[in-house]
Amino acid sequence: MASLKIATFNINGIRSRLPILLDWLSKEAPDVVCLQELKADSSAFPAKEIREAGYGAIWHGQKSWNGVAILAKDTEPLETRRGLPDDPDSSQSRYIEAAVQGIIVGCLYLPNGNPQPGPKFDYKLAWFEQLITHAAGLLESGHPVVLAGDYNVIPTDADIYNTRSWKKDALLQPESRECFQRLLGQGWTDALRHLYPEERIYTFWDYFRQHWKTNSGLRIDHLLLSKSLVPKLANAGVDRWPRDLPKASDHAPTWIELDLTD
DNA sequence: ATGCCCGAGTCGCTCGGA
């Protein structure tokens, strides 16, 4: 396989969003998909429909909230981990990891952290610390790794339409941004920003205030690459069209293409 | 300082996420 397309998509409820997911899989044919916010118990995961669409899958569900999954086109993801080591609250399904096509893919749903300050923000930062610890181990392993998901962090003010009404939001607090920068500082590359250092790129538009219609978005869904994958990064983007459909998720699928030709 | 939108459940309003 010369090219590998890896996507992350916060689906915001896989049951109500399944037609959109299947439509998107059929049209864009990503090789690997990280899903977040399944908002469904593991027993309610639509494995049959996804298999019929040509994808193997592993998932870590939870009733009502959170939930993550990894899909792989024409193959089965080989699960390497579910949940972070020393997860601050293992009842919340926020991490799953698999080997696919020779790459370790970590799929994460970082806590939102609002309102802040408060216990939810503390939990966000605690979870982030465990992610940073785990990510260091992944880099040390020497394997090619992609860490993809909803980080619930707006890395800089260039990743938001306007900070005015978000000043107190957990997604852009200095503590949240400092964690993200410290993660990058281990040696990870923010794939979309690497390819498009100056572009306005958004992956999320909330349901409030006509934010989609006015393109008032945030960039919070990220794909981080370990060092050996950076020279293989051929393309990246955001599929905006599923955000425009009726009953859309508030996130759009975000993807990279790796050229794995030696 | 708060609501905005949305899905799910206790259904046609309320609750709470983010």
Structure description:
- This protein is of the alpha+beta class and 262 residues long.
- The protein has a single domain (3-259), classed as Deoxyribonuclease I, Chain A.
- 23% of the residues lie in helices and 26% in strands.
- The protein is built from 5 helices and 12 strands.
- It has helices spanning 14-28, 47-52, 119-141, 174-185, 191-195, and strands at 3-10, 32-36, 55-60, 68-73, 78-82, 95-100, 103-109, 145-150, 189-190, 221-225, 233-238, 254-259.
- The strands form 2 sheets. The protein has a 6-stranded mixed β-sheet with strand order 3-4-2-1-12-11.
- Strand 3 (55-60) and strand 4 (68-73) form a beta hairpin.
- Helix 3 packs parallel to helix 4.
- The longest helix has 23 residues, at 119-141.
- It is globular.
- The relative contact order is 0.17.
- The structure holds one DNA strand of 18 nucleotides.
- Keywords: Hydrolase, Magnesium, Manganese, Metal-binding.
- Residues 7-251 form the Endonuclease/exonuclease/phosphatase domain.
- The record marks 221 as: Important for catalytic activity.
- The H/E string reads EHEHEEEEEHEHEHEEE
What is the molecular shape?
globular
> First CA to last CA: what distance?
11 Å
CATH architecture: 4-Layer Sandwich
User: What's the CATH topology name?
Assistant: Deoxyribonuclease I, Chain A
Please state the CA-atom Rg, rounded to the nearest Å. 17 Å
CATH-level-4 superfamily name: Endonuclease/exonuclease/phosphatase
CATH class: Alpha Beta
Helix content estimate: 10-25%
Q: Major sheet: order of its strands?
A: 3-4-2-1-12-11
Largest sheet: 6 strands, mixed
Structural class: alpha+beta
What integer is the average pLDDT?
96
Give the oligomeric state of the chains in this entry, treating copies of one chain as homo and distinct chains as hetero: single chain
Whole-number total of structural domains: 1
Strand content: 25-35%
